[in-house]
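hey so u asked for the seq, here:
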Amino acid sequence: MTISPNPQTEPGDAWGQAQEQEASVLIERALAEDLPAGDLTSDSLFPPGPDAVAGGGAVVGAGVVARCVFRQEGVFCGAPVAEALFEKVDPAVKVEVLAGEGSRVEEGAAVLELSGSCGSILRGERALLNFLQRLCGISTWTARWVKELDGMKSVLLDTRKTTPGWRRLEKYAVRMGGAVNHRFDLSDGIMLKDNHRWVLRKAGGSALGDWVATLRESSPGTFLQVEVDSREEYLEALDVAGIDSILLDNFPPGELSWAVEEKHSRQDCDVLLEASGGISLENVREVAATGVERISVGALTHSATALDVSLEMSEVFSLEQKL
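ran it, C-alpha cells below
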C-alpha cells in the first residue's frame, strides 16, 4: 500500500508556518472588525503616555496585569495565537503562558498572564477571548471523544467540515485535543466520493477500477481513498488494486463488523477501513469495537461549543515606573 503523507502537515503537535500564516490573517481581520476607528472608551480613559491629551477623568500611563481564566474545566489551546495577537495590538504587552498547549486545566485556573498598557490589553481583550474560546472549545470537545476511545485501536480523525478561513487553526485544536488530522484540502490526497461516482456512472458507464487507475496515473504516490455506501460498492472496492483506504459511509456497527470480517478473509488485504457518518459520542466506542482502523467525525469541529474563558484584572501599575 502506497501512502504519501501530506507535505504541508506539521509533524506531531507542532505549531508551524501554515498555522502562523492563517492566524496572522485572522487576527488582522478580527482587529479591523473590532477597532475600525480605535476604542472610543479605552482610548479616552487610558491614554498611553504623559504627552497624551486627556480629560480630568482619564488615567494617563496606566498599566495592568490581567489573567485569562477558565470558567470551566477544559483543554487549553491557543497560546501562539495570543502571542501573535498582542504583537499586532502592542508588542510591549508581555504575554506569559501559564498552561501547556493541550493540557487539561481546572475551572478557575489561569492560562495566560498579560502585563502592559491598560488600553492595549482592553483593545485586544475581545479578539483574544474569541480566539481562545473557539480553540479551547474544539480541543476540549475533541478530548471527550478521545477519552471515549481509551484503550481502543481505532484512530480518531477530523474532517474538512471547518469554519471557512479557520481550517489550520481548528485542525491544530483537534490535535491539541488528542485526535489526528484527516486531509487538509482537496489538493492533499484523493477521495473518490459518491457524487464523483454518480456522475461517472451516468456519463461514461466505466467501472471503479478504471477511475482508480486514472487517479493513480495523474497523482502517483498520493493517498487514495474511496467512499462506499453499500455492501455492493464495498465488495467492488476490495477487488480493486491501488486503493489505500475505503471509507464506509453511514454503515451501522453490524455492517462495519461484516466489512472488517470480509477484509480479513482476503489474504494480504491491507486496505485501511474508515467509518464515517452517523457517529456520536454515545456510539463511537461501539464503532471502534468493530475493528475499523479509522473513525472520522466532522462534529469535532462543526459542533464544538465555545469554552467559557474570561479576562480578569489583578493589578494596576504606572507604565512610567515600570520603565
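The chain has two domains: 17-145+308-322, 149-302. The domain at 149-302 is CATH 3.20.20.70 (TIM Barrel).
lmk if thats what u needed
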